[in-house]
Write a structure and sequence with these properties.
Layout: H1 2-21, E1 28-29, E2 32-33, H2 40-45, H3 53-74, H4 84-97, H5 99-108, H6 112-121, H7 128-137, H8 139-142, H9 150-163
Antiparallel strand pairs: 1-2
Helix pairs in contact: 5-6, 5-7
Length: 164
């Protein structure tokens, strides 16, 4: 009975690897096979030409046991597609943690916290003076009350950027 179970599992795994071997349209992002998700396991174990089922299982296990949560949170280890989602999360976290400093910097149109926010948003260095001026000129529409949330501030900034 045990031999039959082992044989059935072996046939199942072999048929899966044959199906994958014939599939040229695997889910890839940036040329990297993404069947195992993102993380150190994917980078180390699926970086070469051998993308067998065993290597994918090991990559998934490594990702889940060590680095995937960190990679998703920080946008490292291949865990972001274009960085858009991760960057947005970083921006929300940054604005929430620095709302008072952002208000002070926006009021004067300059400052370290404003520089950091522009960096996270991907504002080019050459366009930062205009960005800072826009925020300063529209301070009253961005910070509409003393208890404005970071989400409301970012929504107001996005509306300004969409118009200008």
């Amino acid at each position: 009975m045990k031999k039959r179970i082992v044989l059935a599992v072996a046939i199942f795994l072999a048929s899966g690897s044959m199906a994958l071997a014939g599939n040229s349209n695997l889910d890839k992002v940036g040329g990297q096979d993404r069947d195992a998700g993102c993380g150190v396991g994917t980078g180390l174990l699926l970086d070469g030409s051998d993308k067998s089922i065993l290597r994918k299982v090991l990559a998934v296990t490594t990702n889940q046991m060590s680095s995937q949560t960190f990679g998703i949170t920080t946008g490292t280890s291949g865990c972001s597609e274009n960085g858009a989602l991760v960057s947005n999360q970083r921006l929300n976290m940054f604005a929430g943690a620095n709302i008072d400093k952002l208000a002070a910097d926006m009021a004067v149109g300059d400052g370290e916290t404003l520089d950091s926010m522009a960096e996270i948003m991907g504002i080019d260095d050459s366009q930062r003076p205009a960005f800072y001026s826009l925020l300063k000129d529209n301070y009253g529409t961005i910070f509409i009350s003393d208890d404005v949330t970071a989400g409301e501030v970012l929504a107001s900034i996005n509306k300004l950027l969409a118009v200008n």
